[in-house]
Amino acid sequence: MLFYQLLRPFAYIFIHHPVKRKVDWYLPLALTAITIALIAPFREGMNVWATFGVVATAQGLVQALPGFYIAALAAVATFGQRGSSLDSIIPAPTPTIQTRFAGAWIEMKLSRRRFLCLLFAYLTAVSIVLSLFATYGQAIAGPARAVVASLVVDVLSWVMFGFYLLFLFQMVAVTLWGLYYLSDRMLQPDPFESSDSPG
Q1: pLDDT at 18
Q2: N or C: which end of the chain has fewer CB within 10 A?
Q3: What gap in Å lies between CA 161 and CA 151, rounded to an integer?
Q4: Is there a domain that residue 102 lies in?
Q5: Residue 64 lies in a domain
Q6: How far apart are alpha carbons 150 and 160 in whole angstroms?
Q7: Digitized pLDDT (tens) for each residue of the chain, 199 residues in all
Q8: Angle between helices 112-147 and 65-78 (to 10 degrees)
Q9: Within a domain: residue 179?
Q10: Which domain holds residue 41?
Q11: Is the CB of residue 95 less than 8 Å from the CB of residue 20?
Q12: How far apart are the C-alpha atoms of 129 and 134, rounded to whole Å?
């Protein structure tokens, strides 16, 4: 149960919806590939993990985000009265998630409030993990060159950088999606729903 509770902030990624994977994976993967393709020709002499490298620069933004995400999570969790339209089930195609209830796994249809709570909890968790990952990468990038072959270090450095970019771009894409809900969608009445986004 403790393992379930500690990992539950990452539950957003397991929400099932026909369009969600485009925001979570397809767009971040495309942006990661484009970014690496653009900077790869200049990789000679470039240390992306250096003190003033690409990762260190991006971390200025990443480290400022958990506070915003927690504030957004608190606002969504307490916004409006219980039983309002925010707590109604999202119209079809309704996002669903597997959750534990009374000791068993059940499939739960999501309301807008629960969807946004899962979204901002995930963003908070990812921003913290990404900061820890970047700190670790920066700490070992320099010393590793003294004990491991340079080619191996370079390959591992760029693989780690690829993972960092993937989740950085995922965080940006999901943040923009969450801001769309907070600023626009959750304030609208339900029209005839299209299938291009959840609720």
Answers
A1: 86
A2: N
A3: 15
A4: no
A5: yes
A6: 15
A7: 788 889 999 999 999 998 899 999 999 999 999 999 998 888 776 778 887 888 988 998 899 999 999 999 998 888 766 656 678 888 888 999 999 887 788 999 999 899 999 999 999 999 999 999 999 888 887 676 666 657 777 788 889 999 999 999 999 999 999 888 888 766 666 554 444 456 5
A8: 160
A9: yes
A10: 15-78+117-187
A11: yes
A12: 9
What pTM does this model have?
A: 0.87
Which amino acid would we find at residue 44? Answer: E
CA pair distance 155, 199, nearest whole angstrom: 42
171-198: burial string, b at 16+ Cβ within 10 Å, e else: bbbbbebbeebbeeebeeeeeeeeeebb
In a domain? residue 111 = no
Q: List, as one string, the DSSP characters of the chain.
A: -HHHHHHGGGGGGG-B-TTHHIIIIIHHHHHHHHHHHHHGGG-TT--TTSTTSHHHHHHHHHTTHHHHHHHHHHHHHHSS-TTSGGGSBPPSSPPEEEEEETTEEEEEEPBHHHHHHHHHHHHHHHHHHHHHHHHHHHHHHHHHHHHS-HHHHHHHHHHHHHHHHHHHHHHHHHHHHHHHHHHTGGGSPP-SPPSSS--
Copy the structure tokens of residue 183: 């600023």
Residues listed for the chain: 199
Query: Count of domains in the chain?
Result: 1
